Amino acid sequence: MNTTEINGFTIDQFNQYDLTAGKKEGVCPLCSADRKPENRKAKCAMYDWERGLGTCMNCDEVFQLHTFKRKGSTDKVYNKPEWKNNILLSDNAVKWFEARGISQKTLVKAQITEDVEWMPQVSKEVNTIQFNYFINNELINIKYRDGRKNFKLVKGAEKIFYNLDSTVGHDYVVIVEGEMDALSFMDAKVDSVVSVPNGATLNRLNLDYLDNCIEYFENKSKIILAVDGDDAGQNLQQELIRRFGAEVCFTIDFGEHKDANEYLLNYGGSMLKRLVDEASPVPLENVVTLKDVNNELQEFIHEGFKPGFQVGLDNFDSIFSTYTGQFITVTGVPSSGKSDFVDRMVVGYQMKYGWKTAFASPENKPTFLHTHKLIRKIGDWMPSKEDIGTDKWNQVTQIVDENFYFIENERYDLDSVLAKGAELVKRKGIKCLVIDPYNKVKMNGSSAMSIPDATMEYLTRIEAFAKKYDVLVIVVAHPTKMYKKDDGTMDEPTMYSIKGGGEWYDASYHGLLVHRNYTNNTVKVKVLKVKFQNLGENQAEAHFKWNNLSGDYIPLTDSANETLPWEVA
């Protein structure tokens, strides 16, 4: 019997109810004390010491035999609300829940409370229902709901999944979109169910609550997504599938009903639980039928191509955009500003869409200088020592800290970078991976292959990663030695100038050329390839004035008189 760890969780208190350790059956710590004296010692519960769970045949409850410590640690300091034992709900509150199919037994189990709270939406104190968020029975956060369906969480408290403790010891979990849906499944005797704390949105999906407790999902063989059927719910579902991996994800379809609570009211708990048992696996990777793409097909027929993602530079956005699940090759002569423009691209993606980016940049060292460049671009200024600790400094550095990750290896290789990228997708939700430059991120075994074969294998692995995790990959690739023309200038490099030649052009979804003229601080970005015509214009150019203090790019609307010569030796 392991008394230190179960399913990757460190045991804090083994046998918290002081039961007879090792025995497979015995009294229930939840209901035995409330039974008639002659029945208090009845063996009504089964103990599973390996999973750390007990099940009572009398009260039909599942309980944890042990308490657990959270895996990992965080430097962040959160506010923690004070626990108030207000479990005795008013008759009105009980009737309100019962009208929605939630029994008093479930309300007690979930530790639902009721109290007066100041709600900003109505600017006064009103009576509220309180959904209490626990980790290992410690109160972490509270969601307040008033009678007008206004909500708020505790300011400065940690965001986690609701009912997270229920997942420990189970090899499955049901994820829903709201606390009422979680209570609905609990009432239907589904033991492992959690809710996201802040619903779903169509635009930016900030899953910081998943980042805070990803370890609770790492060993699950079945993650069942029971989100709402609207566009926002489906958007959340796709992001959760991307983070967890399609191989462990299953989905529930509520048919004409909006959510789990509405389904419970119409069909009852047994039918709701049946949906869990009959959840459909997410379609296999690399195997697609028309049914799998039918929604996308009809959307395309109605609306045409979806717009691509842009970086927020008007003249560049007018000639280039991209989708996730693709990769971009960026080239240019040495010291042309390739890495700097890539930095501006990912900053743009963060500012416009909330994307998080990981860098594997062996040449962009030391890392603190790389963060300095990102800070300058986001804040549009060159920070001085007087700026450290100011509101602007704290705001900008927080953006960099929470949205940009730097892969640090003594020796970079492609497999380890992509493995770390996959981990960052799951743990942090990155949407972009930068490899800069590719020749410093080696592929194991490439020395035994021809250059064309090695190049194609390298790019195939990048493409597979991008597609699997729905990530945009940006690869910086230096051209081979450039040659001067008779007039002393250099030919513009193309994707064929990169070592590996035509494979780069053939395999890349998109290609960009970047060149900086340091004499007049101008930058030229040229589209060398765009795979889909709706995303850009081949051979089109965007010109910028480069701000050497902030590192930002100022679009030049009239570049006819701008001289943008190639560097000469």
* Spatial arrangement of strands, main beta sheet: 19-18-20-21-17-22-23-24-25
Major beta-sheet overview = 9 strands, mixed
The fraction of residues in strands falls at 15-25%
Share of helix, binned: 25-40%
Structural class: alpha/beta
The whole-angstrom Rg is 28 Å
Average pLDDT works out at: 88
CATH topology of the largest domain: Rossmann fold
Question: Care to count the β-strands?
Answer: 25
Count of spatially separate domains: 3
Shape: elongated
If classified by CATH, what would the architecture of the largest domain be?
3-Layer(aba) Sandwich
The end-to-end span amounts to 72 Å
What do we call the CATH homologous superfamily of the largest domain? Answer: P-loop containing nucleotide triphosphate hydrolases
Low-confidence stretches: 560-569
Report the total helices: 15
Features:
569 residues, alpha/beta, Dna Topoisomerase Vi A Subunit, Chain: A, domain 2, Rossmann fold, nine-stranded mixed sheet, five-stranded mixed sheet, 15 helices, 28% helix, disordered C terminus
Structural description of this entry:
The protein has 569 residues and is α/β, with parallel strands linked by helices. It folds into 3 domains: 5-69, no CATH class; 91-281, Dna Topoisomerase Vi A Subunit, Chain: A, domain 2, CATH 3.40.1360.10; 324-555, Rossmann fold, CATH 3.40.50. 28% of the residues lie in helices and 21% in strands. It contains 15 helices and 25 strands. It has helices at residues 91-98, 104-109, 179-187, 208-212, 231-244, 260-267, 269-277, 290-303, 314-317, 338-353, 367-379, 391-403, 414-428, 451-469, 502-507; strands at 5-6, 9-13, 25-26, 45-48, 53-56, 62-64, 67-69, 113-119, 124-135, 138-145, 151-153, 172-176, 193-195, 222-225, 249-251, 280-281, 327-331, 357-360, 404-406, 432-435, 472-476, 510-517, 522-530, 541-546, 553-555. The strands form 5 sheets. A 9-stranded mixed β-sheet has the order 19-18-20-21-17-22-23-24-25, with helices on both faces. Strands 13-12-14-15-16 form a 5-stranded mixed β-sheet, sandwiched between helices. The longest helix has 19 residues, at 451-469. It is elongated. It starts with a strand and ends in a 14-residue tail after the last strand. Residues 560-569 have low confidence and may be disordered.
